[in-house]
Amino acid sequence: MKKSIFKFILSFAATALVVSCMSDDNSPGPDPDPDPVATCSDGIQNGDETGVDCGGSCSACVEDPIELSGEVTSDTELDASKEYSLTGSYVVKAGASLTIPAGTVIKASGGTAAFIGVERGAQIFINGTASAPVIMTSDAASPAPGDWGGLVIAGDAPTNKGVDVTTEIGDLTYGGANADDDSGSITYLRVEYTGATFSNDKEFNGVSLFGVGAGTTFEYVQSYFGGDDGIEFFGGSVDGNYLVSIGSGDDSIDFADGWTGSGSNWYISGGAKAGIEGSNNGDNGDATPVTTTTLSNITVVGPVTEGALFYKEGGGSFTIDNFYISGVDLGVKVTDTDAPAGVRIEGGDLTITNIQFAETEAGFAITDYAGLNQSFYTEGIATGAGNGAASPSWASGWTTGLDNSESTQENLAGEIAGDVELSASVEYFLTSGLIVKAGGSLTIPAGTTIKASGGTAAFIGVERGAQIFINGTAQAPVVMTSSSETPAQGDWGGLVIAGDAPTNKGVDVTTEVGDLTYGGNTPDDDSGSITYLRVEYTGATFSNEKEFNGVSLFGVGSGTTFEYVQSYNGGDDGIEFFGGTVNGNYLVSIGSGDDSIDFADGWNGNGSNWYIAGGAKAGIEGSNNGDDGDATPVTTTTLSNITVVGPVTEGALFFKEGGGNFTITNFFTTGVDLGINVTGTDAEAAVRIEADALSIDPIQFDAPAMGFLNTNYAGLNLDFFIVGDNTGAGAGAAQPDWAADWTVGIE
């Protein structure tokens, strides 16, 4: 009985507990949080999150890329905040437009299936900026050339392939009669890893423009590591400016099929074949319209395998200026079997001015063209796309892969028409004549070295009306020397300056070397400033009577600065003044093959602090005029602080061909056998000496050589010189303090 009652009590208690629990669960609980906070990290969507831990006040939710493929049949604009995936062909149909704003990135896959095409009659507007370019690239984890197609635009402008022809890639129709056709505007675009391959003969380029018209804007465009050509113009009339092609698998920039646009500011580097390939028509080199273009400000950085410029398949009419080429073995390539191209070159249809070569490769040739017309190019100083081989400033911010530095070697030749400044960090090679034209200037900074080759062909000339500024210092002189491993006298020409000051040779006469016009009526004419210059191994010889001097000054005016200048081991005279009024101070001439310092033709300048040693003939030769000793204006000068170290064969001073009016003070000679030389047949010189036109006070004859004569003048007036001790250029026969550091060869 007790047992049964106990069981009942347990059963009741259990029932009561269950009822109690049920009652608690059904009762109202606390209210939920009325203002939940986004946690952004708990794996739960809460607060203002629009997805799990993203959106709202959290970071933006990752969206799947928007696929681009198919056809654009109405005006469409992309969104730079979206990510785009190009998975197939994406073709803008005639009548429609595609606008791509700054900063948009499109990543492509699918090889030849993936490209962007713009039909004839359609438009594309790529509105990149320098800080936010539009980028079309590969979506591969390890991108490579040929990952996708590229950008193909078809227009209605003329080509010599015909009308209504089909693009070699993309199967778009192009070509018509509308030269001003407008396919839109493309600015600040970079295409990468294009060039997908159909076959050995059929590949996409980075950007292909087929019959695109002049109404289209195409500028600030880069192709980077494309599998075929970087950028190619197939006929049409669109201009292409500020273009960059880096690492192309074929030619870097190519134009053909009657392209009649122009181009400026092209920077090209690392292409596999030609830097620029310019053609007329691969099937008919004489097809019309003929490819006709004007290009300017071009840089090609090699190596290349088919020339910096390949003039091909009839070429065309090309005018190219400011063409800078670095690291190539061939400048202009023309195949010897290309008869139409040869005809055009002979007819003057290819003109290249101011082409400059730097860092040339082994076996370098300017051209392999073997025809008669070898004057289709003119060398000069070029800046190319802006900075020579270095990246141009206009390419900053929006391009990739421009890691080239400034060239360390450059060739100099041709003409300078504007203002040009060299760089002391570059080693220059003077391969031919370099002429500063009237109105132009050449500035050469301290420490610059110019190495010359080519004999009489290699010299630096400054026309009348031009200027040269040689800004050397005692610690960093400008040096013009021979490029030979075993340099010798006569390896190259020298420096020739022509001015507008008076001479007794007349007005508008021609320099005996360099064929420059000089002489006028401007005594204070200004040809620039030359300080701390050393010229070495000059004196290239035309004939027994015609050789370059180290420095030749023809009719140079007193507005010109000429001081701290040395000629070293020149083949003819070291320094010579042909008329003019320029002063020459702190001059050194060592080892000249003729006279050390020479002046003539009515020079009316003055000179002080001249140090002369080792000349073959006279220390100083002073003349009036070789054809007429009485010609006017008469050579008139005051010289002071002069040292001549012998031996000499024609005197420490040769008073010659009428001499002139010379006043010389502090004249030190040593080791000479003849002080003042005056030939017995020089009547005009004798008349001047008798009239006291020659005055030397004092002159010192230190350690005279065997058979010494102070003068061989046989006239009555032997008082024109007074012997006395002096220091000459500063230290007698020793090196003067002012010649320290920047000169060579003074013992």
Structure, described:
It is a single chain. By secondary structure, this protein is mainly beta. The relative contact order is 0.05. It is elongated, with a radius of gyration of 40 Å. The strands form six sheets. It has a 24-stranded parallel beta sheet that branches.
C-alpha termini separation: 144 Å
Q: Main beta sheet: strand number and arrangement?
A: 24 strands, parallel
Query: Could you tell me the strand content as a percent range?
Result: 35-45%
Question: How many beta strands in the DSSP annotation?
Answer: 56
Rg (C-alpha, Å): 40 Å
SSE class: mainly beta
Count the DSSP helices.
Answer: 3
Mean of residue pLDDT values: 93
Question: Runs with pLDDT <50, length 5+?
Answer: 1-30
Shape designation: elongated
How helical, in percent, are the residues?
Answer: under 10%
Signal peptide: 1-23
Keywords: Signal
InterPro entries: PbH1, Pectin_lyase_fold/virulence
Compact description:
Keywords: Signal. Helices cover 5% and strands 39% of the residues. The radius of gyration is 40 Å and the shape is elongated.
